[in-house]
Amino acid sequence: MSALQGGEGVNTSRWTGARRWPVPGLGRSKISKWEIAGEHLAERYQQFFLVALGETLLVAGLTYSKGPYEAGHAWAFSLALATSILLWRIYVQRAGQLLAEAMMKARHPASVGRSAADTHLVMVVGLAATAIGYELIIEHPLDRISGAWLATVLGGPALFLAGRARFEYDVFGRVSRARWIAILVLVAAAVPLLHLPGLAATAVAALVLGAVAVADAHRAHGAPPEAAAPPS
């Protein structure tokens, strides 16, 4: 038994070291290490997100490539592409660019780093659900959507926005109202969308994300670039 436990410990250490990802329960890093590694960790988190985002595009492309190439399938594929672009835009504007700065400015960099790991994990789970929704809707764009499908199509973007809202708080110490309003709209839209084709649910998700992106652009227009201001 002790040998088995020892082997598990070695494997865990290898995986943790290979991925360079903070793992709760394996001990806490000293704050000084988080301060030094802030830029490095920020890049890793961003890469983690971008890989997951790329997977959503890959799923959409592979699903559409199977055909048939009819209007409904083409619209579903186009909406999937637009949604992924909007997810990327919302992520980078502007907290996604300033995580390293936020960690350097924070009184407790380790807290910001750990929270960023959690929020990126939530966002990536949202992306995974979104990718599943792409596959379902591209294959059956005009079929009436079931509750399970709808939870995937709308729940993926909603989960992403929830994680992005917390991430925004970690970087700026506040959350824009557009995030919470968008989540509420996605939840409220679920009931009427149960009676419509799946393509309509995908369109609603894309429109809601588009509204968030427009709100972000409007907030930043004409104002100096916002600096990181993590909560104390």
Automatic annotation (TrEMBL):
Claim: Membrane is one of the keywords in the record: yes
The keyword Repeat belongs to this UniProt entry's keyword annotation: no
Transmembrane segments: 71-91, 112-134, 146-165, 177-194
Keyword line: Membrane, Transmembrane, Transmembrane helix
Lineage top rank: taxon: Bacteria
Signal peptide stretch: none
Protein name: Low temperature requirement protein A
Annotated source species: Micromonospora inaquosa
